[in-house]
């Protein structure tokens, strides 16, 4: 079967595998009615970045999941109970949460974790234990390739970044770029690789490549160098906290060129933190809340009523993800982990709020992004 050849590369702790095997492997079951047609009932584990500096990602994700959960349960074909765990954006905490969920007999599948950095340790573990896992925000290269139980419905950076760069070149006739990226995170590093590759393929001159680390507060050295080189664009691979601070400091230094960011930058938090300094940020997204589409508008309305704010990309992806999983549970006809994995892999032309969704042969996403720019403090379509 696909991906089995990758298993030799999975180097995570065997001890937890042994522990899980000793528990006999967990399965939950569907409740059939007298006609055998009844609804499938399942616990779905969620690992999310709910506390710490990136907590707005986890808040949006869990909000989207809870809204979808209410709607799905109301329809009555599938009954999902969400079991939510906080990873705080940390690998070890994400792994502990995953082990707890996988050890629970009733957990059929896991949604999350939020960061690719976390999925890189949790994904191999879930795969070894035969627990289907689906990231809703993990966008680095290679996530679904971790194993056949590992999926995502998030727009990979490999699709998002080239789309943004193309638009920026077209609009600004850009020829020279500076690149800035976080070198201590799987997602920001992968985003950098994609940016560099895309810039080279599109014939852009890369003036400099600068790095930073999570939690850094002073970018003076990097930005002073970038300013002196006069790029037409700055390509920045960052999570929202660092990204917003970088833009704020750049604008204060008089750097007024557009920024191209990846998925991590596509958060209202960037505008909240950086204010006017966020104007000129270009991102590609699978989600656009002002889309003239009934399904999208219904979701936005319900979300705003429930949570008092507009949904972002992370909420929308999580919302669709639970529907995709609910559909797989229904098609599997049972809350069995293997059956649900197989049903998930078969997902094709699912019509969600992100548009039509299918997995490719690796369990990766086939999707067309929309390119947005922050203009006057608001994400708008970049024409
Ligand atoms: C990743 C991401 C982040 C932006 C998720 C919040 O895309 O870690 O893959």
UniProtKB/TrEMBL annotation:
**UniProt cross-references to Pfam families, sorted A to Z:** Peripla_BP_6 (PF13458)
Its keywords, alphabetically, are: Amino-acid transport, Signal, Transport
Domain Leucine-binding protein residue range list: 43-372
Example GO BP? amino acid transport
Q: Where is the signal peptide?
A: 1-28
Q: Which family does it belong to?
A: Belongs to the leucine-binding protein family.
Tell me the protein's name: Branched-chain amino acid ABC transporter, amino acid-binding protein
User: What are the leading ranks of the lineage?
Assistant: Bacteria, Bacillati, Bacillota, Bacilli, Bacillales
């Amino acid at each position: 079967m696909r991906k089995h050849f990758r298993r030799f590369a999975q180097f995570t702790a065997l001890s937890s595998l042994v522990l899980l095997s000793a528990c006999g492997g967990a399965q939950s079951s569907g409740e059939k009615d007298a006609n055998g047609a009844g609804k499938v009932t399942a616990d779905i584990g969620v690992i999310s970045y709910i506390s710490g500096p990136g907590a707005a990602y986890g808040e949006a994700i869990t909000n989207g999941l809870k809204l979808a959960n209410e709607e799905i349960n109301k329809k009555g074909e599938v009954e999902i109970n969400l079991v939510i765990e906080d990873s705080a954006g940390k690998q070890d905490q994400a792994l502990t949460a995953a082990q707890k969920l996988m050890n629970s007999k009733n957990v059929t599948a896991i949604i999350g974790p939020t960061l690719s950095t976390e999925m890189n340790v949790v994904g191999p573990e879930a795969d070894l234990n035969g627990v289907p896992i689906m990231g809703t925000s993990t966008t680095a290269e290679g996530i679904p390739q971790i194993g056949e139980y590992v999926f995502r419905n998030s727009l990979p950076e490999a699709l998002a970044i080239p789309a943004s760069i193309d638009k920026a070149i077209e609009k600004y006739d850009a020829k020279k770029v500076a690149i800035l990226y976080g070198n201590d995170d799987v997602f920001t590093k992968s985003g950098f690789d994609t940016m560099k590759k895309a810039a080279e393929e599109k014939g852009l001159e890369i003036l400099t490549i600068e790095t930073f680390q999570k939690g850094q507060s002073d970018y003076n050295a990097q930005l002073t160098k970038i300013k002196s080189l006069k790029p037409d664009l700055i390509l920045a691979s960052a999570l929202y906290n660092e990204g917003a601070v970088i833009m704020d400091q750049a604008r204060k230094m008089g750097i007024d060129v557009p920024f191209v960011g990846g998925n991590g930058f596509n958060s209202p938090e960037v505008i909240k933190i950086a204010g006017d300094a966020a104007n000129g940020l270009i991102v590609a997204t699978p989600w656009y809340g002002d889309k003239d589409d009934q399904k999208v508008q219904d979701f936005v309305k319900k979300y705003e009523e429930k949570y008092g704010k507009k949904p972002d990309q992370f909420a929308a992806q999580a919302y669709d993800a639970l529907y995709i999983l609910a559909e797989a549970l229904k098609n599997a006809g049972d809350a069995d982990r293997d059956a649900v994995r197989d049903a998930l892999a078969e997902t094709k032309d699912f019509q969600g709020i992100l548009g039509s969704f299918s997995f490719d042969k690796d369990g990766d996403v086939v999707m067309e992004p929309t390119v947005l720019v922050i203009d006057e403090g608001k994400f708008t379509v970049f024409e």
